[in-house]
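USER: Write out one fold?

ASSISTANT:
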Amino acid sequence: MWKQTDAMQDLNKWTNWHEAQEYVRDLNVKLYLGYHDWRMPSLKEAESLYDATQDRHIRDMDRFEIFIDPVFAPGGGYTTWTSSERPHGGAIIFYYRYGHANINNKEDISRDTVRAV
């Protein structure tokens, strides 16, 4: 199960990896929708939302198409941090505009967000 909005929509700010972790922890503390096991998605889970082959997309906050199901709320970010960590303070981000992943520094805030699962 995925949260329909992302951290950008809920917090009205971009998040680095650590802030994304805190956002997910807060969902659990608040028992969002009655659940206490919200987490950041794995890379495989994040990739599973992406589908550019169908006419399924929403618009992000910049009004560009992101290729995820329209059950998700439009107007959010176009990335998600994942739980997939890398050496030297890195973690993987998945881009729903482009359909690929990249490694970012966990401290960086560069228009990134998280979609909780």
Summary: Residues 17-29 form the longest helix (13 residues).
